[in-house]
User: Fold this.
Amino acid sequence: MEQWIRNVLDLQEVDIRIRKLLIRLEMIPKEQKEIKKEIVEEEQSLETKKTRSLQAASSIKSCEVKTSQLKEQIVNLEKQSSMVKNNEQYKAMTSEIEHLKKQISELETTEIELFDEQEDADAEYKDIAAKFATRIDNLKEEIAELGQLSDDIKAQIKDLSGQRPALKAKIPAETLRIYERLIAKGEGLPLAMIVSGNCGNCHLKVIPQTLYNAQAKKLTTCDYCSHMLYVGE
Assistant:
């Protein structure tokens, strides 16, 4: 293999590693954003369970207040009924008292249901809360690990980028010009090997003259994708 080909392949190996690292680096902020979104959703879920319990407690308190008020009304009506001499008025008060007692019974039934709902909500909240702290810690740890990965990747890119000048210095000017244009596209291999008569970059059949030039170790480009070609040994 010609030395210029080896030199280009050495530079290409470094640049492909840099390209892959940059792609991975670009993904990290998106991944961190998704994890942060998950943390918010976990917090909202926990808050929803807590709110459900608080709402049940508030409703219970409301039932207790209404029941107390109704009982007070009954006491007042019973006092008044003992002083009423008119039979019709007495019946009306008695009917009202029965109506109020029915309301109290309904409120007490509702209160029992609310106590059950609050108990379920509290149990569910405690279960989620017990797992919540660990889950949030794990998610925050993932964010931190991604941050560390980002720093490590940047360090690797810096190290690899530092190798480029020495590698570029070994490549002929015209070859380097073509290579830099191709690597800047950000896709494929600037220098691709011909495999079974096909371009290793676009995979189309290489025409005979191009294949002949590549076999002669000349600077050769694909007639379809314009990427440089070489023949392996």
About this structure: The chain has a mean pLDDT of 92.
